Amino acid sequence: MLNPITRPQAKAALPGGAIPVKPPVPVPREKGEAAVQKLAAAWSDRKLDGVLGSQFSDRDRLVDALQTKVPRDARLRVVSVQGWQVLEQHRIGGFLVSKLSVTASTQVEFGGAAGYQVRPGTNEYILTLNDGSGQ
What we know:
Blueprint: E1 19-20, H1 29-44, H2 59-68, E2 75-92, E3 95-110, E4 117-131
Antiparallel strand pairs: 1-2, 2-3, 3-4
């Protein structure tokens, strides 16, 4: 049985009062890395609901699966960030809002009946960063 991969139907319009930034302002690697580390920590602590946006596709299903299907001692570790790019940027209310694509090598680590297990993977994360300086 194949399950279709959900995807957004159309590009979302900018929020009211938002001013697009063209060309985008570079986002330092450290900010992308820190955001992925925060996401991995939330995954490991079973607190993804606190970092996922309300528009995240199948948000509730993912949070439920993390609670019910992933071993309790599983941890998500970021091995390396391979690359990042700004997909979209706008300014609104003193904030510079950047939508980033970050590609990272990660691994899930957990114990089990077969002993210590490691499941490596490479993933693309789409992240939204809010910079309060607006610059």
